[in-house]
Structure formats: structure tokens, C-alpha cells
Design goal:
Mean pLDDT: 97
Shape: globular
Bound molecules: nicotinamide-adenine-dinucleotide, UDP-4-deoxy-4-formamido-beta-L-arabinopyranose
CATH architecture of the largest domain: 3-Layer(aba) Sandwich
CATH class of the largest domain: Alpha Beta
Distance between the termini: 34 Å
CATH topology of the largest domain: Rossmann fold
Number of helices: 11
Number of strands: 14
Low-confidence stretches: none
Radius of gyration: 19 Å
Structural class: alpha/beta
Length: 347
């Protein structure tokens, strides 16, 4: 029996594969490689010393997905596959609704057809939009502010509806994981975040400035109501996040197999850092300067966002262990040893 990992060649998926293998699970990875490289899966094999079954497969390809379920014994699904760029979702909303919603619907239909009950879904703190207060608990209001975030909330709602209705007597056991800001890389430096274009997110941008690929960072606003005026976020090491998936899967598999359930968890550290603190921490960890300039706020950004992670601590027995300097040191190890990501011409 295998765990089906959709989007397993991507940033969080590849790191979670390492943790799942370490926990003794057998994997089946599918990915259409629209935002990743098959090399990531080879590196997972290199780190773990185990071979991983990988299929290049698009969730929009229903017959191929059905054949995949027919040919492999799947005990549970961890569903990372999706498009995730906020700005692109504003300019191409149909692409996002089509890929993320329809891809998930196809996956759920295949699970139902083949009697697979257990699902872990990659949701996001983006569903909270601009929170009324911090730290953010799972009970906080959800009001995403862009099409990407709305695809996450729609999928959460779909899954919640599904678990509330005895559809064809199918039992669904679902965990929704709302990630805060994943950063860092595997400590080996073999896998990490490999944006295909100029990075949208802070830490990969800083890393590319430090390695000399980009000239300087633009800090989006220094007039927020935060201690130094720059945005504050809950950055979480991708290995801690990956471990959260293993804990969630183990917990899910211990739940009553006779009734449907859907449970949501924040995965964050509970601590917020500002953009200027992040720059400073990266300079310390890498020994490289990160030149920056303050520019106007980015549309849609909020001042402060960090998690209340207590529910995951209590129920999943999980908490983030890695500190900011480990996040930055591991990012730097990955970036400096793979300056062009998985595309490195030296290979
Ligand atoms: P990623 O882009 O690195 O990984 C997603 C993977 O899904 C990619 O490898 C991509 O090729 C694949 N994919 C996309 N559409 C597909 C389809 N139709 N069929 C098959 N494969 C498809 O992104 P990530 O950072 O690893 O994020 C993983 C998940 O976590 C996503 O669902 C994302 O929305 C969610 N998430 C990410 C963050 C973040 O900041 N990285 C935060 C919260 C939630
Ligand atoms: C962090 C901070 C920026 C880039 C996004 C998505 C969210 C989730 C995680 C998927 C903010 C500032 C950034 C730069 C900067 N993804 N910044 N210069 O916006 O918190 O969250 O990724 O679910 O949905 O919205 O992350 O890394 O883009 O920004 O000053 O070049 O860094 O203003 O304060 P964000 P981020």
C-alpha cells in the first residue's frame, strides 16, 4: 500500500516525501511538472537511499488518473498539486479555478471510485485574508482576498461538504493543513525551493540576491503598524512543515474508520518576523550582503500574520522546532550549491 503524493516534485511535496520515507511509508508520486523538475524526485531518492515510483501525470487527465488508482494500491493521498502564485491568479483566474478546483474534483472522484478514504489537503493561511487579530486560530474568520486563496477555501468547503454527507456510503477522513510561510530546505542542500521565474516570495528572492543572481531586494513598504514598519509573517521551516504531514497522516489513520471526518490545523511556528529581521538573519547565516531598497507596499499585502499552532500541538503532537537561523542556513546551503536550482549546467 502506498501514499499517493500529488505535486510531490514540488517544493513542499519533495521535502514531505523525504519525511514520509523516513517514517516507513511507501510512496507513489504524481506531478505534471508544470512548476517543478523530475530531478527533485531523483534527489529525494539520493537523500533517502530508497527508490520512489514517479508518474508524470496531470490531475486534469481523468483517464490517466483513474488508471493510476487502478494500477496501484493506495492507502491515503497527500494532495499538494496546484498552482500557487497569488499575482498570477489575479491575472489568470480561470487557469487557477480550472487547475486547482477541477484537478481536486478529479482526484476526489478517483478516490471515491477506488475506495480510498484518507486525504490530507494543502491549504493556506491565505484563507484568513487580513485577520482581525493575531495569533490566528483555526476558528478565525475566513475571507481570502484573491483567486488563489479562493480556490483553497472552495476546496476546503468541498471537502467539508463531502465529509458531512454520506455520498454513496463512502467514508472520507480529511485533514486540512493551513500552512503559514514555508521557507528553508533539506539540510543536505540537495532539495529546496526552485522558482521557475523571478521569485514572488521573500526568502527565495533574498537568496537569489545573496548568490548574485538578482541585484537588490525591494522591501514592499516600511509604514505598516509593526515594530519596524515592514510586514510580519510566520515563517516555518519546510522540514518542520513536512514532519507535520507525517504527524497528520499518523493521526488520521488512528481515527474511527467507520465515520467521516474533516479537521483543520494551522501549521506555523506562532512567531512573526519582519522583512528587515529576515534580511538580517539571512546575512548572518550566509555571510553575504543583501542590498535592499524600500519601495511602495505590494497590493493585497497585510501588516501582520502569524499562527496559533496549539491545536496541532495538542492533537497531532506536532510543533515546529527549527529556528530562524536554521531556516536561513538551510536556504543558503541549497541556493549556494544549486545557484540555478535543478537546472544547474554544471550537472
Ligand atoms: P510547488 O509549485 O513547488 O508544488 C506544486 C506542484 O504541483 C508542482 O510540482 C506542480 O508541477 C504540481 N502541479 C500543479 N498543477 C498540477 C496538476 N494539474 N497536475 C499535477 N501536478 C500539478 O508549490 P509548493 O510550494 O510545494 O506548494 C504545495 C502546495 O502547498 C500547493 O497546493 C500550494 O498552494 C500550497 N501552499 C504553498 C505555500 C507556499 O508558500 N509555498 C503556502 C501555503 C500553501
Ligand atoms: C512575505 C513578506 C511582503 C517579497 C504568500 C502568499 C500566501 C502563501 C505564502 C501560498 C511580506 C514582503 C516579499 C519581496 C518584500 N502562499 N516582501 N519583498 O505574501 O506573506 O504570502 O506566500 O499559499 O498565500 O500570499 O509571502 O514571501 O510573498 O511575503 O518586501 O520581494 O515579505 O510584503 O511582508 P506572503 P511573501
Amino acid at each position: 500500500m502506498a501514499i499517493l503524493v500529488t505535486g510531490g516534485a514540488g517544493f513542499i511535496g519533495s521535502h514531505t516525501c523525504v519525511e514520509l520515507i523516513a517514517a516507513g511509508y511507501e510512496l507513489l508520486v504524481i506531478d505534471n511538472l508544470c512548476n517543478s523538475r523530475a530531478e527533485a524526485v531523483s534527489r529525494v531518492e539520493q537523500i533517502t537511499g530508497q527508490s520512489v515510483v514517479f508518474l508524470k501525470l496531470d490531475l486534469l487527465d481523468k483517464p490517466a488518473l483513474d488508471a493510476c488508482f487502478a494500477q496501484h494500491k493506495i492507502e491515503a493521498v497527500i494532495h499538494f498539486a496546484g498552482l500557487k502564485a497569488v499575482g498570477e491568479s489575479v491575472s489568470k483566474p480561470l487557469l487557477y479555478y480550472h487547475n486547482n478546483i477541477e484537478g481536486t474534483l478529479n482526484l476526489l472522484a478517483a478516490m471515491q471510485r477506488h475506495g480510498v478514504s484518507d486525504l490530507i489537503f494543502s491549504s493556506s493561511a491565505t484563507v484568513y485574508g487580513d485577520p482581525d487579530s493575531v495569533p490566528i486560530t483555526e476558528e478565525a474568520a475566513v475571507r481570502p482576498t484573491n483567486p488563489y486563496g479562493r480556490t483553497k477555501l472552495m476546496i476546503e468547503d468541498m471537502l467539508s461538504d463531502l465529509t458531512a454527507s454520506p455520498a454513496d456510503n463512502h467514508i472520507w477522513r480529511v485533514v486540512l493543513l493551513r500552512y503559514f510561510n514555508p521557507v528553508g530546505a533539506h539540510p543536505s542542500g540537495l532539495i529546496g525551493e526552485d522558482p521557475s521565474d523571478i521569485p514572488n516570495n521573500l526568502v527565495p528572492y533574498i537568496a537569489q540576491v545573496a548568490v548574485g543572481k538578482l541585484q537588490q531586494l525591494s522591501v514592499f513598504g516600511d509604514d505598516y503598524a509593526t515594530p519596524d514598519g515592514t510586514g510580519v509573517r510566520d515563517y516555518i521551516h519546510v522540514m518542520d512543515l513536512s514532519n507535520g504531514h507525517v504527524k497528520a497522516l499518523q493521526w488520521l489513520q488512528q481515527q474511527d474508520a467507520g465515520s467521516s471526518m474533516c479537521e483543520v490545523f494551522n501549521l506555523g511556528t506562532g512567531t512573526g518576523y519582519s522583512v528587515l529581521e529576515m534580511i538580517n538573519a539571512f546575512e548572518q547565516a550566509s555571510g553575504q550582503p543583501v542590498p535592499y531598497k524600500i519601495v511602495a507596499r505590494r497590493e493585497g499585502d497585510i501588516a501582520t500574520c502569524y499562527a496559533d499552532p496549539q491545536k496541532a500541538q495538542h492533537l497531532l503532537q506536532w510543533q515546529a522546532d527549527k529556528n530562524l537561523s536554521e531556516m536561513m542556513a538551510d536556504t543558503w546551503r541549497w541556493q549556494s550549491s544549486n545557484p540555478n536550482g535543478y537546472d544547474d549546467p554544471q550537472e
